Amino acid sequence: MLSLMDVTEFILLGLTSHREWQALFFVIFLLVYMVTVVGDIGMILLIKVSPQLSSPMYLFLSHLSFVDVWFSSNVTPKMLENLLSETKTISYAGCLVQCFFFIALVHVEIFILAAMAFDRCMAIGSPLLYGSKMSRIVCIRLISFPYVYGFLTSLAATLWTYGLSFCGKIEINRFYCADPPLIKMACAGTFVKEYTMLTLAGINFVYSLTVVILSYLFILIAILRMNSAEGRHKAFSTCGSHLTPVVIFYGTLIFLYLRRPPEESVGQGKVGAVVYTTVIPMLNPVIYSLRNKDVKGALNKVISKTFLIK
């Protein structure tokens, strides 16, 4: 048995063992990461400097972008390093830190998406009362809860992982550290942790998804009651920019975690993990830029001002 003190690092098997593919993957994911960082930070700055993007929806969007760039930065740099490295390892402490932020940021993101859906429900379903129902205090509470709950949940899960003892091969067949493979390598004492983790993850997933589904159900009812075709089109357009990331995010979550894949489908799981950890954070600012008229208008205004100043 390898006890806690014996394990100093883990081996990350990564995306592929074929060296001819590793250089190509490095270039691709470096570009994806650069686009993610520029896009998400650009979205945060755009919302910060644009008065027309001062509604609660864009407060939530700025935090979604913040979480996306943090989420991608938690996984991608180490993945890029290992793609070019002979020893594809991560230290024990580094693995725990990566696990901590991974769990925390997943929880933060799902509840921010739920808060955004609720915000759209209030804006479309009760437009006259929207200002009072989505006051500054309400928005602060809605945006604070995901961070507090997500990081406390992650702290408890990570401390529990810290108490595990490992035996056998200390190889993780992924390109990042996560709880499931660590539990699989543990020698004993994993039954309660595994099922507690699955139960808690299921509750959080179902709760946040229920908020999203109910919000869009009420939105759909409100849209169908509208007499103006222009109003319906505007409502669908506004919701579409939020609904697309929601479908991609939750769809990938279902594919990765709400099933028990056989060993031969590990490759499919890695593809899903790539989408989840690198592609989605890159797509979110692109989707909101292309599908949201207010964001496009603010971006054009900032670009025009920049060129006029020059």
Characterization of this structure:
- The chain has 310 residues and is mostly helical.
- It is built from ten helices and three strands, in the order E-H-H-E-H-H-H-E-H-H-H-H-H.
- The protein has helices at residues 19-49, 56-83, 92-125, 130-133, 136-162, 179-185, 191-224, 229-257, 266-291, 293-309, and strands at 9-12, 89-91, 171-172.
- A three-stranded mixed β-sheet has the order 2-1-3.
- Helix 3 (92-125) runs antiparallel to helix 8 and helix 9 crosses helix 10.
- The chain starts with 8 loop residues before the first strand and ends with a helix.
- 34% of the residues are buried.
- Residues 1-5 have low confidence and may be disordered.
Key terms for this structure?
three-stranded mixed beta sheet, 76% helix, 310 residues, globular, 10 helices, disordered N terminus, mainly alpha
Write the topology of this structure.
Elements: E1 9-12, H1 19-49, H2 56-83, E2 89-91, H3 92-125, H4 130-133, H5 136-162, E3 171-172, H6 179-185, H7 191-224, H8 229-257, H9 266-291, H10 293-309
Parallel strand pairs: 1-3
Antiparallel strand pairs: 1-2
Helix pairs in contact: 1-2, 1-9, 2-3, 2-9, 3-5, 3-7, 3-8, 8-9, 9-10
Strand order of the largest sheet: 2-1-3
Mean pLDDT: 82
Provide a count of the helices.
10
E-strand count: 3
Using the CA coordinates, give the radius of gyration. 21 Å
Biggest sheet details: 3 strands, mixed
Report the principal-axis shape. Answer: globular
Q: Calculate the terminal CA-CA distance, rounded to whole Å.
A: 66 Å
Low-pLDDT windows of residues: 1-5
Task: Provide the structure class.
Answer: mainly alpha
- Residues in β-strands, percent: under 5%
User: SSE order, as H and E?
Assistant: EHHEHHHEHHHHH
Query: What level of helicity do the residues show?
Result: over 70%
